[in-house]
Write a structure and sequence with these properties.
alpha/beta, 5 strands
């Protein structure tokens, strides 16, 4: 089986300049982990920090996070550099 990784954000509500209210429903980090764990072949996640997730949270679901992305934008971006210019 081929394995791959993805950004945890792909399993949550995605907000951009075209959809400032977001695509899809808002989800908690544990809900995003559960969705990620259900994808066949997904082993690694790029996790945004700060986060409340621990290595154990990921390991319990058969995942790991070798990559971490430091988030410099607020949860609801309001500046062009964060993807929208409300």
């Amino acid at each position: 089986m081929t394995t791959f990784g993805a950004g945890i954000w792909a399993f949550g509500q995605i907000i951009d300049r075209y959809a400032t209210d977001g695509y899809g429903p808002a989800r908690t980090e544990p809900e995003m982990l559960d969705l990620a764990a259900a994808v066949d072949g997904l082993e690694c996640l790029d996790v945004n920090v700060p986060t409340t997730l621990t290595r154990a949270d990921l390991a319990d679901r058969g995942l790991r996070a070798p990559a971490r992305t430091v988030s410099t934008c607020p949860a609801r971006p309001t500046t062009p550099s964060c993807g929208t210019s409300r």
